[in-house]
Amino acid sequence: MKMPSLHKSELREKLLKIQKNNYASESDKSIAEIVKSFITNGKCEDIFIYRSKQYEIDTVSVIQFCFQNNIGVAVPRVNGSSMNFYYISSFDDTEQGHFGVYEPKKYCKQASVGQHALLIAPCLAVNKKGFRIGYGKGYYDRYLEEHGHITKAALCYERNILDFTHDFFDVRMDYIITEKVVYSCST
Predict the structure, then answer these.
(1) Global pTM?
(2) Which CATH number characterizes residue 134's domain?
(3) Which regions of the chain are under pLDDT 50?
(4) Of 11, 101, 103, 107, which is least packed with CB atoms within 10 Å of its CB?
(5) Cross-strand partners of 77
(6) Domain assignment present for 1
(7) Cβ neighbours of 79 (radius 10 Å)
(8) How far from the centroid of its chain's Cα atoms is residue 94's Cα?
């Protein structure tokens, strides 16, 4: 989909309004099934994933799948301008934190990025090169600057694969996972 030439912050505002009005739970189920297959086929040992909130692509069933299949689950916690991931073994290990996001409780152990880890990043939109528009605070980009060797995937609806110019500090995803397919974003 071609959007008018807007700055990312203007595009972000428009996408947030659209997201609240066009939430697609059926598409979420398809995305979840594709993610589960991707995890299984990629032999992931740990998944670094956000716990979705209202109007975001649902990650709860993916997290439950990981719990049931002994795949480590790490969710992010914000501390000032930085973010780190912490292991959880159930949803009871999370509580609402910054911006209404479910974060790991203080007792959770900080996760380390292993060879078979996958990071799932939220996004409002992504371009075909794998650069995403997130929520505008830069937490994921800063985290990935330090942990660039982790395999990175963005969850996105097909309709939100857009043509836009990324910023120099944006980190490219390795994959885009939609309700239809997994796109590789390798250079």
Answers:
(1) 0.87
(2) 3.40.50.10420
(3) 1-4
(4) 107
(5) 84
(6) no
(7) 10
(8) 17
